[in-house]
Amino acid sequence: MSVSGLPPYDDANIFARILRGEIPCTKVAESEHALAFRDINPQAPVHVLVIPKGRYVSAADFCATAPEAQVAGFWRLVAEVAKAEGLEARGYRLLTNMGDEGGQEVPHFHVHIFGGRRLGRMVPQM
Ligand code: DGP
To answer: Could you tell which of 6, 19, 35, 49 is best to mutate to test the pocket of ligand 1, judged by most ligand atoms within 8 Å of the CB?
Structure first.
């Protein structure tokens, strides 16, 4: 188990493979702490994924075990990418799915940046 109660990190997950350069991605930005690239199945005109460099399953995992500089550096890159994509004035959404009920498909902590259209309600109505 990871600190979040989710399964342990799987080194074969697709984002781990992107980080190792085994699978290509459309890179948007990169720092020593994180990589930002376009989602393969975009849900909005701008749909970028930001992933920390390292073996983190969830936000709990990342925040509990990553060095402080990486936690800060990760969130800085998220904000910088949103601004660089021209979303600051129009507004945008950050989203992170965690675990089964959260709908997480790729078990490497990541933040989605959505923008470029009116995004509607936060979550589908019950
Ligand atoms: P999530 O449900 O939050 O785990 O979303 C995972 C996202 O990852 C989903 O929007 C599709 C995207 N994705 C999956 N495989 C790839 C890939 O190989 N390349 C890229 N760029 N995105 C991928």
So the answer is: 49
List, in order, residues 6 or more apart from 88 with CB less than 8 Å away: 82
| 84 in a structural domain | yes
25 lines ligand 1 (CB under 6 A): yes
How close is the Cα of 37 to the center of ligand 1, in Å?
Answer: 10
pTM over 0.85: yes
Catalytic-residue membership of 112: no
Q: Please tell me what DSSP assigns to residue 9.
A: P
Task: Return the pLDDT at 124.
Answer: 74
Q: Is residue 21 part of a domain?
A: yes
Do the Cβ atoms of 87 and 115 come closer than 8 Å? yes
Structural domain that includes position 105: 14-115
For the stretch 10-59, pLDDT in tens is 999 999 999 999 999 999 999 999 999 999 999 999 999 999 999 999 99
Per the structure, the count of domains in the chain is 1
